[in-house]
Structures are given as structure tokens and as C-alpha cells.
Amino acid sequence: MYAFEYQRPTSRDAAKAAASGADTHYLAGGQSLIQAMRLRLSQAERLVDLGAIADLKGIKADPGSVTIGAMATHASVASNADVKRLIPALAELAGGIGDPMVRNMGTIGGSIANADPAACYPAAVVGLNATIHTDRRKIAADDFFTGLYETALQAGELITAVSFPVAQRAAYMKYRQPASRFALVGVFVAQTAGGVRVAVTGAKSHVFRAKLIEDALAKTFTADSAKAVKMPMTDINSDLHGTAEYRAAMTSVMASRAVAAALAR
After folding, report:
1. Where are the alpha helices (DSSP H) in 202-243?
2. What's the CA gap between 99 and 229, in Å, rounded?
3. Domains of the chain
């Protein structure tokens, strides 16, 4: 690990001030960043730890939406009564991330800022058409994830919260890599006020919407409709865990299971 300066501010303003004037990374749960730094795959002159900023941790239910602070842990999202009542699919997704240590340390803001191509939260963000709030602006879900470990965030921009609209029906299913528990293929399906949305993680360089499955489900919202879609292999990942053909086929299978789960609620 390269040497770095460490700061732990107690307010958003102090965090922004600490992040100016240096090559800085914000530190959320540290489940990805610290490991990357230990392996010298990432480096920064300064780490600004957000763990002491209390107003980044809250979860609030509003009419028609749930807003989750960027520093809310996966465990707190999974156990929150409002999330479980209004968006149970989101609570279940959070409860299936990693292991207990990861769920108690990892945060929603850190997860989406890291933009791991196989992470679960990006599927919920895109599937539910969430809005990412930062200290500078609001970013629509469809505009946030831009590439492999890349987002629309600008240098020094701080995620403060994520707002999720309440869906009519929603569910998430993932076929997990048994060692890492990341998704080989994960699919979040939601019936929303704006139509059906299907977000896929683990299959490409970043989360994406499966428009073919969305179109099929818009006509008939059934598990069979999703399963019948033959997904193209364009840009689909292929590695020792699964070929592009396998991941493409599993996308339709996971989507069909998500639809079945959503209909069973």
C-alpha cells in the first residue's frame, strides 16, 4: 500500500474542504477501496473517511419513495422497516450482498461509486429508476453508470443519498459466484409508473437495461415471457466462470425467476 494522508471529518462541508487540493478518495465502507490500495491497484494522496458524518446514514420514507443516505450500510437497508414495507425487493437485495462483515461495513454510496460490474446495488438503482443525489446535483440512474468502474461523478463530487421510487412490483434474482458472492448474472425486474424496467448486473462491463426483456414483459408480465427472450451476446462477459453464451442465457432465466418472485408478493 502506498503512503497516504487520512482525515475523518464530521460534516459534509468539512469533507468537501478536506477533499480539495489533493488527489483524494472518499472512503465509505472500505470494502473495495482498501483492498485495491493494499494490492497497489489504486492510490490516493489523501483518504477522507465519511464514517463520522451522521446525516449521510439516515433512511427516510416519503410519499412514493424511499431515500437512503449514502453511508447507510447494506445491513441497515436490509433491516429497515420502511424499506421492507415499501420496497421489499431492495431490502432482500441488500441482505444478499457478501457476508455479514461486508453487509455491516459496506455502504450503498460506496457500492455505486465503485461501480463494480458485478455488484448488486447498481441493478436496483437502474431497475427502480432511482435518483442519485450529490453535493452538486441530481443524477438519473440511466446516466450514472458509464463504464467499467466508471460513473458520471466528477472529481471531488460526493454522493449524499439515493432516492428509490416505490414500484408496483419488483424482485431481484442473482446467480452468484460461490466464492465472492458477486453476481455472475443478477437481474432486477420492476413494474413502475413509467413501465417495466429490467436491469442486469454481472453480464457486461457495467449494469445495463435488457430492453428485449422489457418489451416482452410490457406485453405480458409473466415468467414465461421473460424466459422466452433470447438475449444477444454482444459485449457479454466471458471468463472461466461462464461464457458469453451462458451469461446471455442466464439473463433470461434470472429475469423469469425475478418476475415469478414479483408476482408472488
Report:
1. 211-219, 223-227
2. 33
3. 1-52 (3.30.43.10), 169-263 (3.30.390.50)
C-alpha angle with apex 149: 144 to 156, nearest 5 degrees? 65
Closest listed residue to residue 48, CA positions, set 16, 11, 8: 8
Which amino acid would we find at residue 54? A
CA 93 distance to own-chain centroid: 9
Q: Given a cut of 90, is residue 265 above it in pLDDT?
A: no
Greatest C-alpha distance within the chain: 56
88 contact partners, CB below 8 Å, separation of at least 6 = 170, 265
Contacts of 205 (CB under 8 A, 6+ apart): 117, 147, 148, 235, 237
Question: Other C-beta atoms within 10 Å of 195: how many?
Answer: 12
This prediction has a pTM of: 0.93
